Amino acid sequence: MPRSLSPDAFVYDLIAAAEPTVSPDGTSILSALGRVDRETGRAGSELWRHGIDGDGARQLTWSGGKNGGARWSPDGAAIAFVSDRVGAKRSGLFVMPADGGEARELTRSWQPIGDLAWSPDGRSIVFTAPFDPENPTGTPPPADAAPRVRATRRIDYKQDNRADGYLGDVRTQLFVVDVASLEQRMVTRDPVDHQFPRWSPDGRRIAVGLSNRNGMHSQLGLVDAATGVVAHVGPEDGVVAAWAWSPEGDRIVFVGEPGRTWQLDFFVYDVTAGAIRRLSDDLPSAPDVGYATVSAPAHPVWLDDRRVLFHAVRAGRSGLFTLDVESGEVATVQAADALRAGLSVDSAGRFAVQAHASLGATGEIAVVDVWSGEDRVVTGHNAAVLAEAPPAAWERIEVRREPYAIEAWLLLPPGFDPAKRYPVVLDVHGGPNGFYGHRLQGVQQTLATAGFLVVFANPRGSGSYGRDFTQQVTGDWGGEDYLDLMAVVDAVLERPYADAMRTGIYGFSYGGYMTAWTIGQTERFKAAVCGAPVFDFESFYGTSDIGHVFGELQWGAGPREGAGWYAARSPSSFAHRVRTPTLILHGEADQRCPIGQGEQMFVALLKAGCETEFVRYPGASHLFTGGGQPAHRADFLSRTLTWFRDHLGGPV
Description:
The chain has twelve helices and 37 strands. The strands form eight sheets. An eight-stranded mixed beta sheet has the order 30-31-33-32-34-35-36-37, with helices on both faces. Strands 21, 22, 23, 24 and 25 form a five-stranded antiparallel beta sheet that branches.
């Protein structure tokens, strides 16, 4: 019988190809191959290059611990990338020949360099880096100096997954460096984050995302590359999430919305007229716009003067689509049982390259021939590991709760025997407007391959199903979304091999909220694992980095105006009646769902006489389960598995 995909294997054996990019001539792919060193426990990455069909792979970088963010020069002759080889806690920008060889340093910084983009003539590179007006050089203080006193007057003074979480007036700015002379200049200074720069075809302007209120709102900025003067596109309370210049530079197509409905659409901006025209209204899919501080958006790509290629997710499945910028018509190019990320297209508009994950693979690279529709996964980085420890088998489930069909997936353990009875664990996604789909998830796979039935669903409020479905959770946390999830569990428990007496629930972030809410509403679950929950709406509003914006958008009011609703829908109001044994897991540096939420829950459950354990991860942000310390990630998976094993047992 094959072995389970253990927490240790998931963290230390699997590797990932990050940010794959295709060469301008469409013959080669560049990516950063990341892995964790078992001996040191440190995550690292090196640049690799291989052919468009996956053949001829060879390593390009050998120095430093982390090399990534690579970009081809416009002529394909050189590669720009970021490396930590310049020293501990420093970031360097380098250029090397595309075939490998000696890398030349262009600049270095005490702050992390990112978002590289070559100018159209190949002479300059724009990049982003955090800038502190009180410490322009970014030089760290002496080791024996007292920590700097922090004073602020701005409400967005902190953000999860940024340094130690405290920002003050530090924001990412644009810098341009001349590749030949190494002359460097700071281009922007406005006290907002500037992200993902894209040069205009004539090289005179740079389109950049202007993020405000910790990314809850954003605009597009058109920056004069010479003077730094910025023209704003879109309302201040809207969203601009991905964009692309037309071939002639007269238009910019962008993904966004004028307000906040949690469903993005397409717009086109006439650069000369300064006018915005809406191209779509309620896309049935969710365009891939990345995740702030973690991954860049999949910027759309103009195939010609009228058609734009974009990546989006529909019902948990990735697809490539074309958008007609005149008619707004959307056509499908390709769709797959996968959740892919990013989008890189060659100069001819033929090959589209993306990072690939599915319920049977992870960390790979997929290539789609846009002309023919052919779709291939061209790498097999993790094939050997997953052959020895296969992922769980899966099937799709649909539960009807009028007026919606609720989509879910059920994972079956290796060697599944329908004559046995298996414990069942419900996994609830975060967001609440996130979604699950065709991707290997650590918690799901470590549980399923260890003998559990694992079910995960997209209840109303989940993204990738259109605006109406996505908005159903607004003002109704713990309402119909909760009933959707219970209906999915009921459907699974109708199967003779699912043991209704041994059910568990797991969730993180909004999934943690739903876990905390559920065990306060029912005793049907015999074990719970609650990760970084939203436990008390009022305290979350004032302590989360986004609570003061997110709370009003999601719940309809602040804590004073919505006091009654806050109390009625906060898990804290019902914690006194919880009897489900509960494990609480939380990062101590979490600014999104601050550690105080877990602390409140722990004390409330102890006072209620409930069996509970509280696990804290020092220095860990809200996102540590995906990109934090490898030892913490493995511990998180291991504790989750052990808790459910101890309280639910295995197949009988």
